Amino acid sequence: MRPLRYLLDRVGPHFEKGGRLEKLYPVYEVIDTFFYTPGDVTPDPCHVRDAIDFKRMMSAVLVALVPCVVMAMYNTGLQANTAMVSMGIAEVPGWRGAVLGWTGVGYDPGSVLADLIHGALYFIPIYVVCMVVGILWEMLFASVRGHTINEGFFVTGLLFPLTLPATIPLWQVAVGISFGVVLGKEVFGGTGRNFLNPALTARAFLFFAYPAQISGNAVWTAVDGFSGATPLGAVATGGMKAVTGQLSWFEAFLGTMQGSMGETSALACLLGAVMLLVFGVASWRIMVSMVLGALALAGLLYGLGSLTNPMFEMPPHWHLVLGGFAFGLVFMATDPVTAAMTDLGQWIYGLLIGMIVILVRVVNPAFPEGTMLAILFGNTFAPLIDYYVVAANIRRRALRHA
């Protein structure tokens, strides 16, 4: 790494104040601090709360996302290879088929390596487009405003692809991340000032702007001509028997089913949750309260039943492993920027999101997945929840000392 350090030191003065490339200093700074610890020190006394800073916090989230990334590639390839075998398709057309032919791994759904490589050929291009376009927007806003590029986008740039289907056109990925970064974050002043999760904002935009490419039966498996609904979609039309006949609860927990690339595996999300809690990044109160809110309302609706709505047939524990509930619970609802900050506020915030997820899923059968909208709804109320919690604490203290 010494040659890289030497190169950065040589070109650094050109980006500093008075240099020819002064306007592009944020671009230089983000590259330098990505590979090395900043050399700046505080000349005056300072107060240090703990050893974690924003960079380490975002790095912890990226590490926690690794199980979901691996599962995204594996399950995408598994579903594609399984569909190809069932349909008698010999090979994938285009450049992906050429790469798979060069590797010699084949299309065996029983081969973990074959599934990983096949799935990576769909996930990696989506991820690369998302990162390139998103970082360009970040650099543009940082250069205009004269502030540094923080590491928050690296998390957004990984979360967003994990919420997408494998077959989404790459140009829609570019449009979606542009909307999320610009209108979901930068117009409010950048990271720390946005009140909506940028990745979910981008996902919501795509869902309503291009529903044919983001929802439906044909988008979840990367095989032309194959149609297969997600388990939630199957329940909405055929009841629980449409799922339990083909998928066990444990298989749903593992994530070997149709769905957005990184959201299917509750196990991978659980591993990520453990990491985030150990690192001290995520709030256990939000996680617990969101699960309790979902289970409570799902249990009530399950007990009431319905003669016309098949979604009432879903037992509460199935809601935890289907759709994007686990992924949203661990990585979206706990976003420290857009979630509630007070202890009591986090309990209320999590309960609110968990209950709205079930309301959207069960009471509105035309829209079987409600996690995305529930978290965005919770984001909008988080500041108000914290405000009233703080105001109530102030009133209690005033009465105590009156």
Describe this structure in words.
With 402 residues, the chain is mostly helical. The chain contains 19 helices and no strands. It has helices at residues 2-15, 25-35, 54-64, 66-87, 94-103, 112-145, 152-162, 170-182, 198-209, 211-214, 231-238, 241-244, 249-254, 266-279, 284-304, 316-319, 325-332, 343-363, 371-400.
Distance between the termini: 64 Å
Low-pLDDT segments, ≥5 res: none
Sheet with the most strands, sense and barrel status: none
What's the Cα radius of gyration?
23 Å
The level of helicity is: 55-70%
Total of helices? 19
Q: What shape does the CA trace take?
A: globular
SSE map:
Elements lengths: L1 H14 L9 H11 L18 H11 L1 H22 L6 H10 L8 H34 L6 H11 L7 H13 L15 H12 L1 H4 L16 H8 L2 H4 L4 H6 L11 H14 L4 H21 L11 H4 L5 H8 L10 H21 L7 H30 L2
Précis, in short:
It contains 19 helices and no strands. It is mostly helical.
Describe this protein with a few key phrases.
single chain; mainly alpha; 0% strand
